Amino acid sequence: MHYYSLNRQSEPVDFRTAAVAGQAPDGGLYFPETIPRFPAGFLEQLPRLSSAEIALTVLRPYVGTSIPEPELARICAETVNFPLPVVPITERISALELFHGPTLAFKDVGARFMSRCLGHFSRHETRPVTVLVATSGDTGGAVASGFLGVPGVEVVILYPSGRVSPVQEQQLTALGQNVRALEVRGNFDDCQRLVKQAFRDAALRQRRQLTSANSINVARWLPQQLYYVTALGQWPHAAPPVVAVPSGNFGNLCAGLLAYASGLPVVHFVAACNQNDAVPQYLTSGRYAAQPAVPTLSNAMDVGDPSNFGRILELFGHQHPVLRQLLSGYAVSDADTSATIARVFRATGYVLDPHGAVAYYALADYLRQHPEQRGIFLETAHPVKFPEAVEAATGQAVPIPDELRELMQQPKQSTLLEPEYEALRAYLWE
Ligand SMILES: *Cc1c(COP(=O)(O)O)cnc(C)c1O
Fold first, then answer.
1. Domain segments of the chain: what residues?
2. Is the CB of 138 under 6 A from ligand 1?
3. Among 62, 113, 304, 424, which is disulfide-ready with 291 (CB 3.0 to 4.6 Å)?
4. How many Å lie between the centroid of ligand 1 and the Cα of residue 249?
5. From the CB of residue 421, how many other CB atoms can be counted at a distance below 10 Å?
6. Among the atoms of ligand 1, which is closest to the Cα of residue 247?
7. CB burial string 251-268: b at 16+ within 10 A, e below
8. Mean pLDDT, to the nearest integer, of 419-427?
9. Could you tell me the pLDDT band of residue 293, with boundaries at 50, 70 and 90?
């Protein structure tokens, strides 16, 4: 399998090169040259296959010869060593719970797969590889946990002091081993600026091999197909489901559309956004306009110009009418998000997080207009990661899950850093 740049000014590359580089030299996103079909009989066998077996079948054609099969099988098994259950909420709506991984959010799958691929590619490197990430909260935790204990890889995370939630801060600072946290006296933009400057510093890069764990990396994007395929394996109805995806940067939904293009039976997709609605606007009007991001309750989806939108267009040959047939867009307000958390809790006892609530609202609305259909929404985070919004809506505290209790008791270890490049450079030069 080769990947070309959507900017079409760089050479096509194999999986290894695309995963190590992250972005093409021309600044474009990498896209697979062909979309493989699932092998014959695969969909019928799904209910009997493990997540690891499904991952291996789905990802093998994309990885090609970059990783030998036994090694890829091991990576797949380590990537999904936790359940991805479909849980019925009402007669017509089920949740696909993606928050049973180590950081309680769906980004675990992509981060775990990517980290193990990069670990494999750097195994003969004499210089250790340093993964440098700036985070506003969730991504850093998933990346840190994904790389934890991977030999030959060191992770350095920059996060804005005082601006991440207590759970997120523990997930960044209490892991130890090969993960180091830099607490920057500044905001997320400062963190991102420092990281970008380090990547431009040729002398530093001579001394240390730097890699990014960017969300557009194919090794983070492609494994997300697994959610949709394992969900279909658990779907008890003959008619295929509607699938609603809470979307920000659109990597997750784009992976679902890719699985659909490979043959996965889904009757319709719903792009569930908060007030950051560039893609729903496009679906309605056929015109795309990036917007400045606005803050909302579902803050992991506060993206004004989603990176993966270009991949969705490419997948559908830039045919707006074709895409519109398959995909509906919703922009859900914070008021409707809170009301949905409260209503679903009262009616069923199920506790949604704000991101899942956006998708629930959109799916319920879509199903009202399609009374013969049923659907699945992706619940992308555990409610404990967004306790304020959830407790305000339900009137009850969210209990801390057992998996997290131990981590919450570990000592926090971080290094305070002034938001100046010289400080980061000195730290990395050691
Ligand atoms: C990142 C994230 C999203 C958005 O996913 P995209 O792939 O960027 O569209 C949704 N929910 C949660 C909890 C997230 O962390």
1. 83-105+221-398
2. yes
3. 304
4. 7
5. 16
6. 9
7. bbbbbbbbbbebebebeb
8. 97
9. confident
Q: Is the CB of 336 within 6 Å of ligand 1?
A: no
Rounded to 10°, the helix 402-409/166-173 angle is 70
Kindly give the number of the ligand 1 atom that is closest to the alpha carbon of 385. 13
Sheet holding 242-246, edge to edge: 86-88, 93-97, 375-379, 242-246, 268-273, 327-331
The 2-5 sheet, strands edge to edge: 13-14, 2-5, 30-32
Q: Write out the E strands in 280-414.
A: 327-331, 375-379
Structural class in CATH, domain 83-105+221-398: alpha beta
- Please indicate whether residue 249, judged by its CB atom, sits closer than 6 Å to ligand 1: yes
How would you class 93 by CB atoms within 10 Å of its CB: exposed for 0-12, middle for 13-18, buried for 19 or more?
A: buried
Indicate if ligand 1 lies below 6 Å from the C-beta of 250.
Answer: yes
Ligand 1 pocket residue status of 252, Cβ below 6 Å: yes
Residue 259 pLDDT greater than 90, yes or no: yes
Tokens of 210: 């730097």
Report the candidate in 330, 355, 329 with the shortest Cα–Cα distance to residue 340.
355
CB 384 less than 6 A from any atom of ligand 1: no
If you average pLDDT over residues 354-371, what whole number do you get?
Answer: 98
With both helix axes pointing from N to C terminus, report the angle between 354-369 and 334-348 in degrees, rounded to the nearest 10. Answer: 80
* C-alpha dihedral, 219 to 225 to 229 to 231, nearest 10°: 110
Residue 85, SS3 per DSSP: coil
Distance of CA 356 to the CA centre of its chain: 14
Q: How far apart are CA 97 and CA 277, in angstroms?
A: 24
Burial 195-208 (b: 16+ CB within 10 A, else e): beebeebeebeeeb
Which residues, at least 6 apart from 430, have a Cβ–Cβ distance to it below 8 Å?
none
Gap from CA of 203 to ligand 1 centroid (Å): 35
Polymer length of the chain: 430
CB-ligand 1 contact for 248 (6 Å cutoff): yes
* pTM of the model as a whole: 0.92
Give the pair of three-digit tokens for residue 95.
């949740």
Q: Tally Cβ neighbours within 10 Å of residue 419.
A: 18
